[in-house]
Amino acid sequence: MTIHEWVQAFTMQLKAVPLLEWIGVGFGVAEVLLARANKIALYPCGIIAVVISTYIFFHAGLYAESALNLYYFIMSVYGWWFWINRKNHTAPAISRSTKQDWIITVAIVVIAFALLYTVLINFTDSTVPIADAWVSATAWAGMWLLAKRRIENWILLNISNAFAIPLLLYKELPLYAALTLFLFIIAVLGYIDWNKKLKQQTHAPAVE
Asked: Are 161 and 134 in contact (CB under 8 A)?
């Protein structure tokens, strides 16, 4: 696809995006920005984004993508619960992943990838089952780390984003590729911000 064709496809897709989808994307972006700022409002924004995305994907016939959003919904609810149940509802301390966290993270990636790949090749007409499964599996792991307030969540989410951008371009979805690039940049800034805050938490416990 030439640059001119890419711009044309981008413009056409932009004009075709319904209002509900823009609202869903808007709340999704708000979730990332709030996560970067370490604000609890990231969770209600994330839940709204997930609910809207689930509806859109289901009615578009993307049943696997719609089902995957249930995981994001659960992780958002868990993260919100984890936060508000702290004393004084203060923001949970940011921390680095422990050895156990990494074991769980790797397990999530491996199990999710195997499960998604199996479903995609056996029950869908996906032409990119490996890439699709990998993008989703690493995103699942990143969301789990985000719920636990582990700084490495940004790394896992950006591994997912890095593979998602060319995948979306291959599927001729330039708008979503551009949005994913934006999320990639935000995640990099989020990691930098969290790293600074982590260094300031000299009196906070390493792990909650």
From this structure: no
Give me 41's structure tokens.
């409002």
Q: Give phi and psi for 150, each to the nearest 5.
A: -95, 135
Banded model confidence at residue 179, pLDDT cuts 50, 70, 90 = confident
Kindly report each contact of residues 78-86 with a partner whose C-beta sits within 8 Å and lies 24 or more positions away, as own/partner. Answer: 78/147, 79/42, 79/43, 79/146, 79/147, 80/40, 80/43, 80/44, 80/47, 82/147, 82/148, 82/149, 83/40, 83/43, 84/40, 86/208
Tokens of 162: 């890095």
Q: What are 126's two structure tokens?
A: 């996906």
Q: How far apart are CA 43 and CA 51, in angstroms?
A: 12
pTM, entire model: 0.73
- How do residues 60-88 score in pLDDT, each as one tens digit? 555 666 677 787 788 788 888 877 876 56
Question: Domain ranges in the chain?
Answer: 8-200
Each residue of 148-173: pLDDT tens digit?
A: 889 999 999 999 999 988 877 777 66
Residues 26 and 109: their CA atoms lie apart, in Å, by 27
Smallest CA-to-CA distance from 140 within 124, 158, 157 is with 157
